[in-house]
Amino acid sequence: AELLGSEQCHETLRRLDEHFDLVLFDSPPVVAVTDAAVLSRLVDGTIVVVKAGKTTTEMFKKALRQLEDVKSHTLGSILNDFNLRGEGYRYYYYYYHYRSDEGGPDDGRRRRRRLLDEIKKSA
User: Fold this and answer.
1) Contact predicate 41/70, CB 8 Å
2) d(CA 67, CA 4)
3) With contact defined as beta carbons under 8 Å apart, do 67 and 31 qualify?
4) Phi and psi torsions of 77, nearest 5°
């Protein structure tokens, strides 16, 4: 946490912001250490990654509360390690294709552009 609060860290973040449209940081879990909460205040937005079958709903809510407490701009969450071949696979498979077909072939690009625009607005 001390390194993240240093002037050198702030200068590095400024340089990255000048040279790149999007910079992603992988930080330790929010609930485990303070580094993630400190870093969340220095960036334009935070995406919370949740591991399927491991992260409990209570831990997820606690992480969101901690980010909210430090005035972090939480953009959303990602569920990783989700097994589509498990129970209910057909439902998720159908839903995935149904949702992906709604907006046409470049729907994903439009969503990414909106996300980038939102990040830039909040800067």
Assistant:
1) yes
2) 16
3) no
4) -140, 160
| SS3 call for 75 | strand
Q: Is the pTM of this model over 0.90?
A: no
The DSSP 8-state label assigned to residue 6 in this structure reads S
For helices 57-69 and 35-42, what crossing angle results, to 10°?
50
The domain locations on the chain are 1-82, 83-123
Task: Please give the structure tokens belonging to residue 113.
Answer: 């552009």
Which tokens sit at 19? Answer: 């040279």
For residue 95, the number of C-alpha atoms closer than 13 Å in the C-beta half-sphere is 6
- d(C-alpha 36, C-alpha 69), whole Å: 13
Give the model confidence (pLDDT) of 69-101 as tens digits.
999 999 999 999 888 776 555 555 555 544 444
Residue 65, token pair as written in the block: 């509360």
Tokens 């485990």 sit at which residue? 32
Contact at 8 Å (CB) between 52 and 82? Answer: yes
